[in-house]
Amino acid sequence: MKYNNILSETSNGITTITINRPSKLNALNRETIQELHNAFDEANASSKTKVIIVTGSGEKAFVAGADISEFANFSVKEGAKLAAKGQELLFDFVANLSTPVIAAINGFALGGGLELAMAAHFRIASDNAKMGLPEVSLGVIPGYGGTQRLPQLVGKGGAMEMIMTAGMIDANQALQYGLVNHVTTSEDLLEFTEKIAGKIMKNSSVAIASAINAINANYEDGENGFKVEIEEFGNCFGTEDFKEGTQAFLQKRKANFPGK
Ligand code: COA
């Protein structure tokens, strides 16, 4: 597929999706959100993709937020629609993908940028990364899931402070908060992220998809995570991956998962 604002390339089981509007610090305009939806959807459906990495182009920004120039004149109705559409097309969509998504945060991750990183299944940051939800400094609140996912990741008090002050935290603070899992140098960020992707790829993609579903269930209204876990656990017993994984263990060899 041809894109104007992003790059998507797949090699060795990893699809790397790069937001590519460096002159606007990779801000998410409407077209970029639609393109990201298409790229994530395509990668998730492809048997060639085992892990998706999302990052920003250039050294300065992952994503500096939603594109402020697009919504500055919106009405109440248009504002609500912007948030609903964005959550559906990109943020909830990414969080619920069955393929693991890792955000490699290579600079500013602000507003919608941090919300995109938080929608990913986990995050790795370079040591120059800066993260924040500065929306209240513009007279608005985070609308792409930030008020929900930030407290899930850093706790209520930390999220309240970050959102109310509209401040930025650096990569090491984000590591302390549990917002990112690892911090690397800028040069090592992608290689390090790919190494973790490589570890994930050795395992059963079907079981990983079940695990994502069960973990996410804990954060969904009306879902009982323990019940979903029981169901998903049972489902695994009907998969070829389970047969291969258990047989390989008993035969003292490495599993070669068919991904079914
Ligand atoms: N939406 C639209 N354009 C944005 C943007 C955003 N969220 N963030 C940056 N840009 C644009 C700037 O307007 C500028 O464009 P121009 O060169 O055509 O004027 C370009 O990206 C470079 O940004 P600039 O502000 O000059 O870089 P800087 O290094 O001085 O500052 C930031 C970097 C991240 C601190 C600053 O860009 C910023 O505060 N951005 C907005 C962050 C934000 O509030 N995000 C939440 C949105 S809901």
Please characterize this protein's 3D structure:
This protein has 260 residues and is of the alpha/beta class. It has 2 domains: 6-201, 2-enoyl-CoA Hydratase, Chain A, domain 1; 205-250. Helices cover 47% and strands 17% of the residues. Strands 1-2-3-5-7-10 form a 6-stranded mixed beta sheet, with helices on both faces. A 4-stranded mixed beta sheet has the order 4-6-8-9. Helix 1 (30-45) packs parallel to helix 3 (76-95). The longest helix is centred in the N-terminal third of the chain and has 20 residues, at 76-95. It starts with 5 loop residues before the first strand and ends in a 10-residue tail after the last helix. Bound molecules: coenzyme A. Coenzyme A is lined by residues 24-25, 27, 64-69, 108, 110-112, 134-135, 138. InterPro entries: ClpP/crotonase-like_dom_sf (IPR029045), Enoyl-CoA_hyd/isom_CS (IPR018376), Enoyl-CoA_hydra/iso (IPR001753), Enoyl-CoA_hydra_C (IPR014748). GO terms for molecular function: lyase activity. This is Enoyl-CoA hydratase-related protein. Keywords: Lyase.
